Amino acid sequence: MTELPDGSRLSFGGEEFVFVELTEHMSLSGALRIQAITDALAELDIDGIIDICPSNASYLLRLDPDRCDPRTLREPILDLHRRFVDTTDVVLSTEILEVPVFYNDPWSTETAMRFRDRHQSSSETDLEYISRVNGFGSIEDFVSAHSGNPFIVTFMCFVPGNAESMQLVPDEMQLQAPKYVRPRTDTPERALGHGGAFATIYPARGAGGYQLVGRAATPVFDLAQELPDFTDDPVLAKAGMIVKYRPIGHDEYVAIRDEVEQRTYRYRRAPVEFGLANFFEDPLSYNTSLLGELADV
């Protein structure tokens, strides 16, 4: 392991992997710095780098050892860490995407209530619990806060389509909640969960530990690539993508599900240039301008 001048720690996984840990804690500013570093590293187009995987506090590089000696990457990595020691001048070329979510849906609630023996609260729903621990007087107030400002994808997780994201708000406004004491053995497909400071949509039915707050009407993974938005890639989200959750009711949920089944649904999405300096100067006003990019879509 090698410690870089900024305190980051670089280590090698044999000849195929380079792992860089920037901090031992997670923060929005740290995650955005990692986005800037890994985006710039991708632009260098270094022969032999097969994959670049940014995370919330670290990033991992996968290499072809026949084309790239991992030891040769120390200097370009060091240069990028120096370049982005202050990310306020960074602009990320990304896109903003709207996801319709049925908050407080009956399917997620029913599932959550089957696992109260694994939860911090034996009587509340997940949504009631997460609303209370974040200081809200009602579920509606929590939903308004959760859907009012967009999130940015910081980590592509453990199964295809699973993407952790942090809300683009000042630290004092970050919504947080512990994960289940013991994970559930069941979670509905497309359930919207929140654990720690991160939101994610479960791409398929399975185990999970995040608090369940709603269910997306649309998929985030389409292996058959039958929907128009998945023509080029079966995975919807990318690191750095900005996601806006839009609350919908039961009737609109059903209508959108019909469009999905007919393979005609299209996501509302728009390309954006996300300037970190402008965001940090006035996050909430900047979010308003970001959301305005969806107005004409």
Q: Can I get a quick summary?
A:
27% of the residues lie in helices and 26% in strands.
Q: What are the main properties of this structure?
A:
297 residues; 8 helices; 27% helix; 26% strand
List the helices and strands and how they pair.
Layout (H helix, E strand, L loop, with lengths): L1 E2 L5 E5 L3 E5 L6 H17 L4 E6 L3 E6 L10 H10 L7 E13 L2 H8 L12 H8 L5 H10 L2 E6 L6 E5 L23 E5 L2 E4 L9 E6 L25 E6 L2 H12 L7 E7 H6 L1 H10 L5
Give a structural overview.
This protein is an alpha+beta fold and 297 residues long. It has eight helices and 13 strands. The strands form two sheets. A seven-stranded mixed β-barrel has the order 6-11-9-10-8-7-12, surrounded by four helices. A hairpin with a 3-residue loop joins strand 4 and strand 5. Helix 4 packs across helix 5. The longest helix is centred in the first third of the chain and has 17 residues. It starts with a strand and ends in a 5-residue tail after the last helix. The mean pLDDT is 93.
Residues in β-strands, percent: 25-35%
Ends apart, CA distance between termini: 48 Å
Count of runs of 4 or more consecutive helical residues:
8
Low-confidence stretches: none
Structural class designation? alpha+beta
- Assembly status: single chain
